[in-house]
Amino acid sequence: MPQSNKFSSEPVTTVLSWTVKHGKEQLFEHVMHDIHKVARTFPGHMGVTTLQSPTHKDSFQTILRFDNTKHLETWLSSPIRQKMMKPLEEIAHIDTSVKATGLETWFEVPGQLVTPPPKWKMVVATFIAIYPVSLLFTLFLAPHIATWHAAVRALFLPVIAPIILTYLFMPFLTQRLLKHWLYKNDPS
Q1: Count of CB atoms within 10 A of residue 140's CB?
Q2: Which of 2, 32, 107, 127 is 20 to 30 Å from the Cα of 143, by its Cα?
Q3: What domains are defined for the chain?
Q4: Which H or E run includes 100?
């Protein structure tokens, strides 16, 4: 009988929410900076950042991305990470840890546990978000870069679109505009 593979081959994002002891915020950021430098050396690392809440100075979130679950688990369970996390145990604790793969990361609702919507709804919502980005690119940017080499022109949309989608369009669509359609059983 074949064994199921517990590791996803899709990119995976983990969000760790931290509460830091009062007055230890700068030390926390310094230690996290050192941990981030080491994380970047691990296979499959796609980015990591720690952000401080603008309203709660003792609240931080670390967003960690790897190309697949196996590489993420290798980093999380590595002896070097375990050693580097020791100083944090005295100044901070993890409140929550959330892991998502693929398109699911665009369909999270902060502060709520929700079941991701059906994939067809994810496709529709993603289309609704991508179309205006593509249209704006075609109307306003493409004419100005039309004489550039095709390889350079082709970089613009894949570089700009994920940033706009991840930080602006998808949060607005999934958490406000389409929330009740995407999450029919959502009590809020």
Answers
A1: 9
A2: 127
A3: 12-104 (3.30.70.100), 119-182 (no CATH)
A4: strand 92-101
Cα 102 from Cα 105, distance rounded (Å)? 6
Task: Provide the residue type at 40 as one letter.
Answer: R
CA dist list (Å): 156 to 79, 159, 164, 167? 39, 5, 12, 17
Location of structure tokens 């931080």: 60
Q: Which two tokens stand for residue 102?
A: 């693929």
Tens of pLDDT along 16-65?
A: 889 999 999 999 999 999 999 999 999 999 888 888 887 888 888 888 88
pTM score: 0.53
Residue type, 139: L
Q: Indicate the residue type of 115.
A: T
Identity at 118, one-letter amino acid code: P
Alpha helices in the chain (DSSP H): 25-39, 69-76, 79-89, 119-136, 150-164, 170-172, 179-182
Task: Indicate the residue type of 136.
Answer: L
